[in-house]
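Internal QA ticket QA-208
Title: Verify multi-chain structure generation after dependency bump
Assignee: T.L.

Test input:
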Amino acid sequence: MANKQIRRKRGAVAEAKAAAAKLTPRDKKTMGSIVGLADGVVSAAEKRKDPFVDIPSRTLANVRYSPRKRIIEMGNSTNRRQLFDLSQAKAYMQTMLVASGCKRLLNQGKTTSLRGLFYMLKHTIDGTKENTFDDQDQCDPVIEDIEVLLNTLREELHLYASNRGTLVGPITLVDSGDTIDCSRMGSGGYNIPSIVEPDVMQFVKCDAKFILHVEKDTVWRRFNEDKFWRKHNCLLTHGMGQPPRGVRRLLNRLHNELQLPIYCLLDNDPWGYYIYSVIKQGSINLAFESQRMAIPDVRYLGLRSKDFERCQLSDGVKIALNETDRKRAKQIAGYPWFAKKRDWQREIEKMLKNDFKLEVESLISKDISYVTEEYVPARLADQDWLD
Amino acid sequence: MAVKRSKKVRNRASQTRTRKGPARARRATRADVEPSKNGDAVAESAESVDGAGDVESNGAVAAAPRRRATAQSMAAKQRDISVSEFFAKNRHLLGFDNPRKALLTTVKEAVDNSLDACEEAGILPEIWVHIEATGNDRYKVGVQDNGPGILKKQIPLIFGKLLYGSKFHRLRQSRGQQGIGISAAGMYGVQTTGKPVKILSKVSIKKPAHYYEIQIDTKKNQPQILNGRGEGVDIPPSQKGKEYVEKHGIEWVHQPHGTRVTIELQAKFVRGRGSVDEYLEQTAIANPHVALHYVDPDGNPRDYPRSADRLPEEPKEIKPHPYGVELGRLITLLHDAPNSTVAQFLTTTFSRVTSHVARKICNTAKISTRASTRRIGRKEADSLYQAIQATKISSPATDCISPIGEELILKGLHHVVPGEFYAAATRPPAVYRGNPFQIEVGIAYGGQAAMQYVTKELLRELIEETDARTIRQFFIHTFNGLGNEAADRIIKESQLATRQSPSSLKPKEIERLLTAMKDVNVSEGQTMEVLRYANRVPLQFSPASCAITQSVIGTNWRSYHLSQSRGALPKGPVTVMVHVASVWVPFTSESKEAIASYPEIQKELRLALQAVGRKLGMYVRRRRKVKQQSDRRQVFLRYLGEVATAVSDINGRDRAALYDQLISVAKKRTADADVKLDDRGRPIEDADLELGENVLIVDPMEAPATINRAPAAVEETE
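Actual output:
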C-alpha cells in the first residue's frame, strides 16, 4: 500500500518534469479534448448527476455506405457509457484510465505501443483483488472508444500498433528523417510502420506503375524472390491478413498522392473478400477513419471461385467450407457495398456452390512460380478483375 | 395412442412377470432343499424341547400326533399377567428399546412429570437435570423440580406402580397421559443395574422432606420400599436434616419445595439427533417459562434460562364430546351412571348436549328420554350410538386448550435457535373426532449468518477457550446450527487438515480460517430442520410417519423463496417448530413418537405453515432486494477511486473532493440499499407493520444462541 503511494508520487514527479515537453499544435488540440472529457466528469459529480460518455457506436447498424463517396461512413448513433450502471461501471473506469494514460504520453512527448499502454494502466484496484485490465483484449477496444469519442486518431494519442506488413519496390521515401530505398531491402522488405502520416513519412521518388497487395507473408516472399516487382515495375505489399491501419493508410497515400492503381491478391474465402472490402470501403469498426484509409478504386485480382476449373487445380487443394464460412459469406453478400455488384454476387454464389475455398498458396501445387509467372501476369493482361 | 400405451403396459407387466418368475422358482427350490438338508436337526431340537421324557418314541414320527399337553395341564399354567411384568418384557413399547433411547426416555418422563406438576400447581418451573456416568455403561440420572412436592403416602405408588396417575381419567391437555412413564423408567433401572429408585420430596419449607428408596415388584405391580424398614425416611427441615442429606450422599439442590428422582440405569450417552441434549433444547423452545439447568456426563453445565415469566394459561378439563365416544365407551359410561334417565345421562356426561339435543338423540334412537340407563341393553346402546352420530351437535368448547402463544414461541425460538428472522402463527382451535386441538407454528431463518461476522479477536478467543479436539468439532460445537458438511467445507477452503487440533493453529492459519468462514456459503446444502411438539413435548423419533413432517414437505416452500425438491424438505438455514396441542393427541403408537394424519389436523397444519411461510417469503424477498442493491453499491465503490484518480490526473482537480462527490452520487443511486421496501418495491416507513405481528427480526450477532462459548469460566467457579 505504502509502496504504491510512493510509486504514485514518483510518477507525479516524473510527470512534472516531463510536462516541459513541448506540445505540437496537434497535441494541444488532443489535450484539449482529453481535459474536456475529465471536466465533464467533474461537473457531473458537482451536480450530483451520473457521469457518462456518449461513444459513437462502432457496429454495422451505425455505419452507412455512401454510394457517392464509395466508402463506409459512421452514423450518428452513440452508446451511452455510465459510471453508475452495473454492466458499464468497469468499462467507464477503464475509459478514464486510458484517457489519463494518453494524457501522460502527450505530456512526456513519447509514444508507446498498445501493449505498452496496457502495461502502463494495468494495476490492482485498491482494496480488491481485481485488476484494472486483465489482458490486452480488454484494453484495445477501450482505446478505439477513446479515438472515436475524442474524434482523434491513434497517432494523435501517441499510440501505435505493432508493425505488421511489408513493402518492397521501386520507391524511395523518408521515414522519421531517414531516407529509405525500398528496392534495396534484400529478402525482408521494408517494414511498414504503424504511423505513416505526412509529418513522419514523405515520398521522394517513385517509378512504380501499380501496387500489388497480397494477403500473406508466404505469398509476398514468393513474389519478392521471383523479383516480380522488378519485372512488372510495381510495389509489392502485404498486411499479414487483415491489414493494420499503417498499411492501409500507406496504400491510401500511395494511391491518392502518386496515383498508383492497386490490385489485391487474396484468398478465395469470406475472409479474403472482407479484407478486400476493408481496403476498398473501410472497416465497420473504424468507419470514422474511412476517409483517410479507404481506397474505393482498389481491384480484386484473385483468387476467384472459377479458378479451380480455370487453372485446373487438383482436388487436394480444396478446403471445405464450414458453417461459419457459409454464414459469413452470406453476410458479406448482403453488405450494401456488395449488394448491387452483380459480379460479386455471382462470385460469392459460385463459392457457396463450390462449397470449398481456395488459398493463394494452392496455386503452388501447379508450379512453384505459377502465381508470379502465369496467374497474375495473365489476369493483369486480360484486365480480369473484380471491382 | 391409447391402444399403444395399453400394449406397452401389458408388455411391461409380462416382463415383470417373467423377471419375477425365475426368482420365485429359485426361492422355492431353496426352500425345498434347505429343510431336507438340516431337517433332522430341526426335528431333533423340536423333540428335545417338548418331549423331554420319551426318547424311545423318536423313531415313530410318522405315527398319529400325540397330545403334548392336556387342557388341565395347560390350565395350571394360565394366570394373570401383571402390567409391570408385561411392560418389563415389552419395554420397547415404552421407549426403552436400546440403551441410548432408555436414557432419553428416562429424562423425558421425569422432566415431563415435573413440568406437569409445576404447571398444575401454578409454580414457574425450574428443573435440574444431572447425568453422571458411573462406569460399565451405567448412568445416574437425577431430575429435580421446584414443584409442589408429593404427599408421603403417594410417593411409593407414583414411582413404584405402573398405571398409577391422575391424568388418565380426565380430558385435559397435559404432557403425560397414562401414568406409566416414570415408574417404567424406575423399573428399567432396577432391572438393568439393581439399584433402587431414590426419591426425595418436600411439600413446604417447614415440613420434613420424605426420602424413599424404592424398587418395583414386577409380579404384583407394587412398590417395595427399601429404606427406613419399609417406611421411608423423614428428613427434618432443620440444619440437622441438611447434615443428614449430606452425610448419606443424597442428591438434592436445596429448595423450599420440590421433588427429586434419581434413577441409575444401563444406558448410552450420545449427542446429536435423538439425544438428551436435543430433547432439553427443544423443550426449552416450547416451554419458555421453564428454567433448565443441565449437567452432562462430561461435567459440562448448560443453562437454559427462562425467557418468559408467565405460566401458560391453565388448561381446563372438559367432558367428552359425543362424537368422539365409541360404542364400547358409551356402554361403560352408561353402566357408570345407573340412577338417571337417558336424557340426564346425555346432558351430564357429554359436552355440548343440551336437553333439546338429548331429546333429539332419544327420538332418533327410538328410546324414551325418561328410560332408566339401567334398562339400556347392548342393542339400545347401539341405536343410541347411531343416533348420536346422526344428530347435529355443535363442536366442543375449545377454551380447554392452552397454546404456547405466538409471542412465547418467538421468545423460545430466539433464545435457542440462531437466526435473524423469526415468525410465529397460532391457528384458532379446531376439532377432530370430537377432540379439540390447536396448531402453532414458529419459524427461524438465517442461522449461520453470524459466522460471517466473527472478528479475528473473537475467533482467537473462541479457539483458546474450546476444548474440542479437532477444528471440525470446534466448529460444530461452537456455532449453533452449523452442520458437519458446512464445517468440512470451511476447513477444506482454508486448506487445513481436518483432524488438526484448534490449539495448535498458527496465527496465519487462523487468518486463513477466518477468510474461509467469510467465503464459504454455509447455508448451501442445508435442509430445513423440523421441530415437532405434542402438548409441549418434543417428538424426536419417526419423523417420516408423522403428520407434521408430511405437512411440512407437502407445503410448497418455493413460493416463499426457499428451494425445495419434490417430496423433500426445503433447503436453507431454516428451522420450523410445529406444536400440536390437544386434550387427546392422536399418536400413531403407544411410544408417542408421531402424530396421526387426521384430515382436520392436516388442514390446520397446512394453514399454519402457510401463514409463517408468507411472512418468511416477504422477508427473504426484501432481504434479497436490499442485498442486490448493496452489491451494486459495492461494484460502484470499487471503481470510483480509480475514476477519481484518473480524472484528477488529467485535469488537475482535487481528487478527494471529486471522490467524495462521486461517493455521494453512488449512495443516491443505490439508496434502495438503505431503504426498506415492501413487496412491490415501494419504500415504506416501518417494515414490521407490513409483515404483521409476531415477527421478530434481529441482528444475527445478537442472538444469544448463535455462539456457544466454552464453559471454561463456569467450571472454575464450581
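Spot checks passed. The two ends of chain B are 80 Å apart (CA to CA).
Status: verified.
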